[in-house]
C-alpha cells in the first residue's frame, strides 16, 4: 500500500517535472512553483482532515503516547518547562494548544498539529523567501518542507518500509523549517530585504524553540554564509536581532524560553546525550553523496546554461550538507535530512535554471541540458513523493479499516494499530497496546475515570492514561521518562514535586523505565499511596486519605 501510494504521489507531482523539462522561462518557473505550492496545500489539508491515526511500526508505540500526553497537557492548560520538565522546545506545546482549541482531543490531534505547523511554515516561506527566490525554487523548497512536516513516515528509515510511526513529530517539524532557513542562507541573495531578514530570524528562533540542536546547526550555517559573503553583514545582524526579539517576546509572554533552557541544561549533563559517533559516521557517505552530486549538477547546469561557474555555491552546498549530517548526532536523528533534497534546487537556482536570462529565453535546446534540468527537479521531488505517499497511504488505510471500538469516546479516539500486528501477539507493539488497554480497564474499575478523581501518574516510559480517560494530566510529570535523558539515579525530580497532584499511581511491570523509576520513587509511593489493584502489567495505587 505504501509503495503504491508513493507511486500515486509521484504521478500527482509529474506536472512539475513536465514543466521543468518542456516549458520555457518564465512560464516554466511559474508552473513549477504553482504546482509545488498547490501540492503543499493539498498535503496540509489531507493531514488536517485525516480520519484515523494508524500506527504501523514494529516498536515504539509507547513513544507515540508522549505525543498524546503532550496534547492532553495542552488541553489541560499546562505549559511545558514552566509546569513540567521537558527538553523539547515550547513550540511543540504551543502548536498542540492550537490543535486542541480547533478540534476536541483525539488521536488525530497529532496530524492536525502537524498540519498547523506546516501551514505556518508555508506562510513564513512565502513571506521570507518570496522576493529572494524564483517561484520555481520557492515552490519546490516549500513542498519539501511541508511534506517532511506532515509525513507519518518513520524518520530514521531511508525507504518507506516501516511507516506510519508518527514518532516524535517535533523532529519532522524542526527538520522541515530547517530546510526553509537553510535554503534562504545558501541560495543567491536575490532581492532579500530587511523585512525578510527579520522573518528569517523569527524562523531561526522557532527552530531553536522546537529542537535546539537543529537551531544551533542553522546558526553555524548563518556564520558560514556570512563568511562566504552570501549574507550581508546588515542582513545577518537583522537575522540575529529578529531571532533575539522573538525569543525575548516569547519569554515575556510565556516564561517558557528560560525554563526550557534550564531543562536542556539538565539533560545535557546526562551521558546518554552525547554524540552518537557510530551513527554519525554511518551517515557520512550519504551527506557526501548529496554534497558532491549537487555540486556536480550545479557545474554541469552552468555549462549548459552558459552561466559563470562560481566556487561559493559549491562551498555553501557542502556546508549545508555537513550541517544536515551533524544534526543527526543526537537522539532521534532524522536520516536523509530534507536539507539534502533542497541542495539540487539550490544548485539549479545558482545556475539560473528558474530565472529569465538577459536574452529572455535560456531553456537549453540540447537534450543533455533538458535532462539535467529534469534531474534537478526529480531529485527534489523524491522526498515529497515518498513522504506525501505515506500520507496518502494513511488515507487509504483509514478508509479500509473500521474505527477502533475499544477507544471510542476516549481521548485517543481515532487511533488504530495496523491489523497485521495482531498476527504477532508477542510483538512489542501488540504487547504495549494490550498493556494500555489492561491499565485502562484497571483504572476504570477503580473509578479513576470519574470527574471527582485526580490525575493518574504512570511509572512507565510514557503515560497514556490521562488522554484515554479525558482527564487532566499530572501537572509536574514530564511527558515521558527515559533514563539518561529525563532522569537518572542522581538527577531526578523530588518525589514531593513529581507526585504533587497525582491521586493515582500506576506502576508498570516489564518496562525498563518503570523499573528504574520504582527503584527511585518506590519507597515514597509505598509510604504515601495504598495498593488498590493489580494485573499482569500494572499495579495501581491510590493516595492515602
TrEMBL record:
UniProt KW keywords: Membrane, Transmembrane, Transmembrane helix
Domain of life of the organism encoding this protein: Bacteria
UniProt KW Electron transport keyword: no
Membrane-spanning residues: 6-23, 35-55, 105-126, 133-150, 170-187, 199-228, 313-333
Protein name, per record: Glycosyltransferase RgtA/B/C/D-like domain-containing protein
Source species: Roseibium sediminicola
Amino acid at each position: 500500500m505504501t509503495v503504491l501510494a508513493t507511486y500515486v504521489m509521484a504521478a500527482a507531482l509529474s506536472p512539475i517535472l513536465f514543466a521543468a523539462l518542456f516549458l520555457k522561462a518564465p512560464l516554466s518557473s511559474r508552473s513549477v512553483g504553482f504546482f509545488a505550492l498547490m501540492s503543499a496545500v493539498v498535503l496540509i489539508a489531507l493531514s488536517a482532515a485525516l480520519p484515523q491515526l494508524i500506527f504501523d511500526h514494529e516498536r515504539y508505540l509507547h513513544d507515540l503516547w508522549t505525543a498524546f500526553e503532550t496534547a492532553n497537557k495542552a488541553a489541560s492548560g499546562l505549559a511545558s518547562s514552566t509546569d513540567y520538565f521537558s527538553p523539547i522546545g515550547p513550540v511543540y506545546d504551543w502548536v498542540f494548544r492550537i490543535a486542541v482549541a480547533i478540534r476536541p482531543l483525539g488521536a488525530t490531534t497529532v496530524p492536525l498539529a502537524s498540519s498547523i505547523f506546516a501551514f505556518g511554515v508555508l506562510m513564513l516561506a512565502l513571506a521570507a523567501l518570496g522576493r529572494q527566490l524564483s517561484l520555481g525554487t520557492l515552490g519546490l523548497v516549500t513542498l519539501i518542507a511541508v511534506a517532511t512536516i506532515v509525513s507519518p513516515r518513520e524518520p530514521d528509515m531511508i525507504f518507506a518500509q516501516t511507516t506510519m510511526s508518527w514518532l516524535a513529530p517535533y523532529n519532522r517539524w524542526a527538520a522541515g523549517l530547517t530546510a526553509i532557513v537553510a535554503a534562504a542562507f545558501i541560495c543567491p541573495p536575490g532581492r532579500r530585504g530587511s523585512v525578510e531578514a527579520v522573518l528569517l530570524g523569527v524562523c531561526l528562533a522557532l527552530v531553536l524553540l522546537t529542537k535546539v540542536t537543529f537551531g544551533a546547526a542553522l546558526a553555524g550555517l548563518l556564520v558560514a554564509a556570512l563568511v562566504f559573503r552570501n549574507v550581508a553583514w546588515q542582513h545577518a545582524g537583522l537575522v540575529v536581532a529578529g531571532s533575539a526579539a522573538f525569543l525575548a517576546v516569547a519569554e515575556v509572554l510565556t516564561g517558557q524560553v528560560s525554563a526550557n533552557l534550564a531543562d536542556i541544561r539538565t539533560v545535557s549533563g546526562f551521558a546518554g546525550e552525547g554524540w552518537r559517533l557510530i551513527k554519525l559516521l554511518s551517515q557520512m557517505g550519504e551527506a557526501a553523496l548529496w554534497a558532491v552530486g549537487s555540486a556536480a549538477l550545479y557545474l554541469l547546469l552552468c555549462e549548459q546554461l552558459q552561466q559563470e561557474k562560481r566556487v561559493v555555491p559549491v562551498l555553501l552546498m557542502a556546508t549545508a550538507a555537513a550541517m544536515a549530517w551533524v544534526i543527526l548526532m543526537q537522539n532521534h536523528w532524522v536520516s536523509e535530512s530534507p536539507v539534502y533534497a533542497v541542495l539540487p534546487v539550490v544548485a539549479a537556482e545558482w545556475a539560473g535554471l528558474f530565472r529569465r536570462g538577459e536574452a529572455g529565453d535560456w531553456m537549453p535546446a540540447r537534450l543533455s541540458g533538458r535532462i539535467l534540468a529534469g534531474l534537478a527537479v526529480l531529485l527534489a521531488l523524491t522526498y515529497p513523493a515518498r513522504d506525501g505517499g505515506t500520507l496518502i497511504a494513511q488515507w487509504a488505510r483509514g478508509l479500509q479499516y473500521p474505527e477502533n471500538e475499544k477507544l471510542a469516546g476516549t481521548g485517543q479516539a481515532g487511533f488504530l494499530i495496523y491489523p497485521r500486528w495482531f498476527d504477532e501477539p508477542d510483538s512489542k507493539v501488540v504487547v504495549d497496546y494490550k498493556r494500555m488497554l489492561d491499565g485502562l480497564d484497571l483504572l476504570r474499575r477503580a473509578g479513576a475515570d470519574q470527574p471527582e478523581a485526580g490525575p493518574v501518574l504512570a511509572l512507565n516510559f510514557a503515560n497514556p492514561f490521562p488522554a484515554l480517560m479525558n482527564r487532566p494530566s499530572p501537572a509536574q510529570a514530564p511527558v515521558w521518562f527515559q533514563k539518561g535523558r529525563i532522569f537518572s539515579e542522581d538527577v531526578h525530580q523530588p518525589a514531593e514535586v513529581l507526585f504533587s497532584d497525582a491521586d493515582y499511581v500506576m506502576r508498570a511491570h516489564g518496562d525498563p523505565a518503570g523499573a528504574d523509576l520504582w527503584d527511585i520513587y518506590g519507597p515514597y509511593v509505598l509510604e504515601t499511596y495504598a495498593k488498590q489493584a493489580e494485573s499482569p502489567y500494572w499495579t495501581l495505587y491510590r493516595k492515602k486519605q
